User: Fold this.
Amino acid sequence: KNEVEQSPQNLTAQEGEFITINCSYSVGISALHWLQQHPGGGIVSLFMLSSGKKKHGRLIATINIQEKHSSLHITASHPRDSAVYICAVGGADGLTFGKGTHLIIQP
Amino acid sequence: DARVTQTPRHKVTEMGQEVTMRCQPILGHNTVFWYRQTMMQGLELLAYFRNRAPLDDSGMPKDRFSAEMPDATLATLKIQPSEPRDSAVYFCASALPPFARGYGYTFGSGTRLTVV
Assistant:
């Protein structure tokens, strides 16, 4: 079974700061997913990637397959980015999730 | 935007009662997953279907949980009898493998279950 570790568990930053959330996994994968969950809210898929880098607005996700490591970056962070960010690995047979990173962006 | 619809959004029930949660996947998605989220365990896979056939339900307590997909537009998760430890948020997600095409997962809004 794949073990998915995220760091940090909690992160508080000031508006405008550059944010990095890390994810490592133990077994080779077909795809890695970054998910966002607001308090009391549903889960939104931000990225799915199997190699390289993807960018969507102020969000950037990278993955290093050899190192079994992925990072999620947020540029020019904003209070509306406050949420739990969850890394998950897997594909057609379901996902294995990290515990999530609770991000708070203060104005 | 296409979405996965889950009902009910919230459910409070007494211990021992039957609970049924429903999920309408995105039209055309052939794979449906049930996940459970708790504070202690985080998100866990309970079961999933492909083309309406159950492929894996090893994450479910077999004695009380059952998952079915009576047609392509409806997946159900039942708990009978319910117990306080079943209190959690239950998410349904649908997808269309293979993921190499770039299609990811779409999650429903979840059913928040409280068993008292």
Summary: Chain A has a mean pLDDT of 94. Residues 41 and 83 of chain A are 10 Å apart (CA to CA).
